[in-house]
Task: inverse folding
């Protein structure tokens, strides 16, 4: 028996991207490097942000916009480190958009920020369609999710600048083929940077910090 | 510093739920037990379906509707077991809807089916808003996603009949508090059935099979 495949229509974007350009101009005025962090639920967005704050906050002034359907669990964790943070609750919405981020920017001390992390809603589909004003799109893939995810959620993998492959500490207990994963990702996105890490154990994190410090320097130089 | 919380508006549903009622009536005519399976990407929807097919296909005639943004990887796996399957590709859409499922039903031998699994798109937010015609909503939470997910994606946990807690084989390597997870889930949904399993090792699966066989019997009795 052959498998029947039915393809249905795509959604239409609104005026989001014009607002994203406005945000980008506003952020550029302050020289802020802005990273839009996307992933499935529980892949490690907050863990990456927290680990990065601990490492880099002596070198760069960080702020965070947290996007969630509900709760302020993540923002509370960032706040506990003394970092300026705004929580955006989407009340059921499946992604941040540029208008929400504008509201976030209105509530942050932009003149005192070098690096802004925007933690998007946990979702491998919808966030990719909405520019926010970021310099860099970063997505986190979590090893327990499996190595076939680039085939099933291709748009996000195709469109990102950086893929953090998190939870590599679980590799011995998973059927995850990193070579197959890399092949799938680079097939969609030849220039992408893939960084395997464990936010839990710290494995691979120096390469991420080095990459980020380079991006911060490049931003300062304009 | 207190955390700033911004709440933005909700989406509006279309005529989906009327079509879902039509699907439900159509499925009831054939006495088909229909289960809508939802989860994050990579939590184990296909693994649960494949393991269940292997266990139960002597006792019940199974069919599957596979929903994905792209690819037919999952449908190919089901098809390899000789089970009728339709792949629906949403081309960027973040959930199945009742109209897509109707097209799936048009392509299945309904008179020869006792149990229909509908594997929704991997997403903990959008699928919950769209009834498909199912008897049972089932969601899979994967242990590596963390025990705080009920707080961050409350609508899906509040609205489901069954929560399968998958990948319990990884428990020794995770900071996952099952008691806290259960408390969070039952706080949102006091009557929910929570079944911890490992689709990989088979741990806990007998309880799921037993529950499913009970649901099949109840359906046959009408």
Result:
């Amino acid at each position: 028996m052959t498998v029947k495949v039915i393809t249905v229509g795509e959604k239409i974007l609104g005026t989001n991207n014009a607002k994203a350009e406005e945000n980008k101009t506003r952020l550029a005025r302050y020289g802020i490097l802005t990273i839009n962090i996307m992933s499935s639920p529980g892949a490690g967005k907050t863990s990456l942000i927290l680990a990065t704050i601990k490492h880099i906050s002596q070198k760069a002034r960080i702020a965070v916009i947290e996007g969630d359907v509900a709760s302020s669990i993540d923002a509370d964790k960032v706040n506990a480190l003394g970092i300026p943070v705004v929580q955006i609750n989407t009340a059921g919405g499946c992604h941040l958009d540029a208008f929400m981020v504008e509201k976030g920017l209105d509530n942050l001390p932009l003149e005192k920020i070098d690096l802004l992390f925007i933690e998007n809603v946990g979702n491998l589909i919808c966030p990719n369609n909405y520019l926010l004003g970021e310099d860099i799109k970063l997505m986190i893939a979590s090893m327990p999710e499996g190595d076939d995810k680039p085939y099933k959620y291709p748009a996000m993998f195709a469109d990102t600048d950086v893929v953090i492959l998190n939870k590599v500490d679980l590799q011995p207990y998973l059927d995850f083929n990193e070579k197959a994963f890399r092949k799938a990702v680079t097939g969609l996105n030849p220039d992408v940077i893939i960084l395997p890490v464990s936010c839990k154990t710290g494995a691979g994190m120096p390469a991420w910090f080095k990459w980020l410090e380079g991006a911060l320097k490049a931003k300062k130089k304009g």
Summary: The two ends of chain A are 58 Å apart (CA to CA). Chain A has one domain: 14-221. Chain A touches chain B through 66 residues (CB under 8 Å). The longest strand of chain A covers residues 33-39.
